[in-house]
Amino acid sequence: MNALQEAVAAGFYARKQLFSRSRLIAWSHRGRFATGLRLAREVGGQRVLDYGCGDGTFLALLAGGDRSPALAIGAELHAADVDDCRDRFRTSDSLRFTTIADLASPAHDEAFDTVFCMEVLEHVIEPEVVLRAMNRLLVPGGTLVLSVPIEIGLPVLAKQLVRRVAGWRGIGHYPGTTPYSMPQLWRSVFARATQHVGRPAFRASDGSEFHDHKGFNWRLLRSRVGRMFDLRYETTSPVPWLGAQLGTQRWLVARKRAS
Q1: 3-class secondary structure for the chain?
Q2: Over the stretch 192-238, which tens digit does the pLDDT of each residue have?
Q3: Would you say residue 258 has pLDDT above 60?
Q4: CA 66, 69, 18, 131 torsion: positive or negative?
Q5: Residue range 95-114: average pLDDT?
Q6: Which of 53, 55, 103, 219 has the fewest CB atoms within 10 Å of its CB?
Q7: What is the dihedral of CA 247, 14, 121, 186, to 10 degrees?
Q8: Is the pLDDT of residue 162 over 70?
Q9: Residue 170: pLDDT above 80?
């Protein structure tokens, strides 16, 4: 294991996702990252931003590949997470990390060819605000790659079960275990592109609010993305041919409209 691989393995998300004691959870997340890397190769871009980079796993995997971008920046909400990424990846000259607040600087306007945002928007209280920010950060014609969990249809039944079992086994901490009433679960299974159940909001220690996975509807997000960007492509992970009816995550690839 080289230094970059060791840094990835030490990440707090990687430990509970890629290296989870649950083989099913690990398989799902490995498929998610594999899909992200495949899309990165397809859309290209020399200046790449991972908006909500977590522990930096995706950017590190991207930088370790044979088609790494010239500039790869990961942005996170909290300075402590940024500092953790900077420390673990301190030997990598190609990776940089900053806070999301720093991205508000005009110096970052239209600075990136490609923006990734993976497993973030399901937690955001006002996703339109984040979408506008990413639109500002992209060059005209730049590519936005989004990944969000599928929490409607049959997958919501399987996911709630897997999360409960993981909790009973003491495996990690997975959001989205807020209980559903039977009517809510029924509406979630048959949800369309409108908000089907109320979404609980939680308050973090810093006072910010966030959602867990309950009630997240990727089809509603797709409508919001389509109002601001040109949707180009959709796929599903960990197995594309399963489709959104049986898959775990939905991917949206969109292009910034020329001004």
Answers
A1: CCHHHHHHHCCHHHHHCCCCCCHHHHHHHHHHHHHHHHHHHHHCCCEEEEECCCCCHHHHHHHCCCCCCCEEEEEECCHHHHHHHHHHCCCCCCEEEEECHHHHCHHHCCCEEEEEEECCHHHCCCHHHHHHHHHHHEEEEEEEEEEEECCCCHHHHHHHHHHHHHHHCCCCCCCCCCCCCHHHHHHHHCCCCCCCCCCCEEECCCCCEEECCCCCCHHHHHHHHHHHCEEEEEEEECCHHHHHHHCCEEEEEEECCCC
A2: 999 999 999 999 888 889 999 999 999 999 999 999 999 999 999 99
A3: yes
A4: negative
A5: 96
A6: 219
A7: 40
A8: yes
A9: no
Cis ω on the peptide bond leading into residue 149 (within 30° of 0)?
A: no
- Torsion sign over Cα 62, 63, 68, 70: positive
Confidence of residue 176 (pLDDT cuts 50, 70, 90): low
The DSSP call for residue 197 is S
Q: What are phi and psi of 50, to 5 degrees?
A: -105, 105
Residue 199 DSSP symbol:
P
Q: In what order do the strands lie in the sheet with 71-76?
A: 95-99, 71-76, 47-51, 112-118, 138-149, 249-255, 230-237
Which domains, and CATH codes, for the chain?
3-150+215-255 (3.40.50.150), 154-209 (no CATH)
Six-digit token string for 224:
């919001």
Q: Which pLDDT value is given to residue 169?
A: 80
CA dihedral 14, 16, 21, 24 (to 10 degrees): -90
Closest CA to 151 of 111, 127, 123, 125: 123
Structure tokens at 48: 């790449």
pTM exceeds 0.85:
yes
